Model the fold of this input.
Amino acid sequence: MKKEGEVRIPSGCAICGIFSRDGSPVNGGTIAKSIALMHNRSNGLGGGFAGYGIYPAYKDYYALHIFYDNLKAREETERFLDSHFDIINLSKIPTKQVESITDAPLIWRYFVSPLVHKIQDSQLEENEYTARCMIRINNSIDGAYVFSCGKNMGVFKAVGYPEDVAEFYRLEDYEGYAWTAHGRYPTNTPGWWGGAHPFALLDLSVVHNGEISSYDANRRAVEMYDYTCNLLTDTEVITYILDYLIRKEGLTLEESANVIAAPFWSTIAMKDQEEATRLAYLRKMYSSFLITGPFSILVGFTGGMMALNDRLKLRSLVVAEKGETTYFSSEEAAIRAIEPDLDRVWSPAGGKPVIVRLNKEAIV
Amino acid sequence: MNMIASRYRINIRKDECVLCKRCVRECSFGAINFNSEKNTITLTHSKCVDCQRCAALCPREAIFITRNQNTYANNHLYTANTLNEIYRQSATGGVLLSSMGSGIGSVHIYFDHLLLNASQVTNPSIDPLREPMETITFLGRRPRHIERGKDGKLVDNLPPHIELSTPILFSAMSYGAISLNVHKALAKAALRLGTYYNCGEGGLHESLYEYATNTIVQVASGRFGVHERYLNSAAAIEIKIGQGAKPGIGGHLTGTKIIGDVSATRMVPEGIDAISPAPHHDIYSIEDLRQLVLSLKEATSYTKPVIVKVAAVHNIAPIASGIARSGADIIAIDGFRGGTGAAPMRIRDNVGLPIELAIAAVDQRLREEKIRNEISIIAGGGIRNSTDVVKAIALGADAVAIGSAALCALGCHICASCHTGNCAWGIATQRPELTNRLDPEEGADSLVNLVSAWTREIKEIMGGMGINSIEALRGNRLALRAVGLHEKELEILGVKYGGE
Done:
């Protein structure tokens, strides 16, 4: 059977997210309880979480989470890291034995800072330098896979049901202002840990439910801009497109949503002149990044979260609020499982992003 | 003695024929005549080109054309066609001429080896009758990056684009090669469909200026009929470097066709041969092309996209890359099977590449050079139906151009006799008694029907794949699987084999 990345594997899924706008800490166990309710939307072949604000003591360092197939891959990777970064701290990620989680790779965490003279030599800014180093590890070191590399955030994922993955990673030991979670239902998979979600690049993480029909058009377009799609998954390509549009092209989140879930031409025609021009411009300029087919995504980033549905809303996505906390989920029941008494619940329209950010006075 | 056996036999069922003589009037090739002394129809089989005009117009359906059953000695190497070509050349000393696109069977029609995908279970197909299904296509250049004004708002820095309601245009066909009535039908249809026709290199007839919004004007090596008003009476300008039916070869419209309006429109004196040189004599290299592209933009105040049309030849990928960097907005690639009003047969059947390979190679090359998104690609040459359109776009084209298929909608039966000027359907001829056979309004109706039908089918196919906008199909090669091709072909086409 071919490994993930050698063959494209479509998946159905469950996603959920919690965002605390005032920055008050949310325990990792809470998000696990929420996603656990949607057990039947996963099939045990992938689960994962992304937490933001979880490493306050190391918030100025890139937190690298890496899977190693063997010791040799670790040694080679650490040699590479040593020559490109200052390693401030390194350790195994603490895990707990869980019966249903098997075949675990070596899982290591590093807090690093790019070597100043290396950045200068590369003529890149810090984020781009770090992103390229991580992509290089994934592309060239056999048996090593960086699955998280942002600051003050981290991804935890494995092959298994999400609630078991949470237990395995001892998620109740972490607290953060934002969490996303993913339960995977791939239609066939060799069960590779790297293939579980969220998928992340720097502090941008994506969980996704759906199967996009524009996949190869999107992949071939984004690969023009120095991205390599190794996993051949929707989530990977969506992450790269958003990274390109937001970090490299300087689009806002709303503008990026207008690109990937662009309004229909008939809708654009009904807008006022200025808005119609703006929307038509984005569609024409980035037509290869239009994503069609069903998707609901949660995009996590430092200080915020965006939820977005495909323009026909072919996947369920519910948003709810309670006080200063915003909840997102494939199913409303998963929100009610952790907060039965909600102020407001709604289903965002297809193509309409819901964006939440930390309040100005929030301390994280 | 006649060394060359007739290719076809004209058969008239005597018991059904009422001697109305319609076939005699319709046959423009002199194959069917009436002997008034004997009151019978006489047939000259050797003159029949199988254009089907007589059969189609016979009120009793009494006529049918068959291949000549007389056969030459069976030989794979020296087939009847091969022998006839030798006999013709040894009798005349001439270059073999033919027309329309190459129909030779020894080169794969790759479209027929590609199968399309559809959604099942894991994602939904989309019903185009219930949901919007977008085929609107924009062709033109895109800048590399966005710009923002001082207020932070996006600035529309896109150069001019042309907008098509469906990703199908009509290919360039010149007035002279085809009749004015055909041009009128194409222009009217383009207007009604929200797409474009292309006047080819013969200039633009005075009566067609009113269709400027849906006209692409051509600047070819002969520069016939090119003047400032011509350039400014179009939605886009096409520089024709070559065409798929005769890459590397110029054109020759004989003086006998340079009469009346053709002469005036081409700006060539009556009775003088109109020779299109093989190259543009001001373009001997890629940097010269840039000069012409920019000259045309200057002449039209940068208000119109410039297309550069080339034939698909072996080096098509680097050629396209050079064009993409020349300032041109759109590349039109014409494949091996592209049609023509006249071409040396050996060139038509042996020079160039099938459009499928050319699209795949060019699209991939421009991506490797990171410039694919900056320029649009129009593919033409052998597009026969809606699935060819879908496959061409999935391989990497933005839109396709159709010529032969459009002429078929007007009656053409691909008899490949355009170069004789005797087209019985009134298409590829300037003989008034023949051009009158084609009514521009009826012709436009047929063209609108054809393109509308294809568009409907394209929407059905897209919906089946769960794709609701044409740009999500462009270059989406996972929508294709191949059958009956070898590994190298898969590599060049960038598609997987069926079952992979």
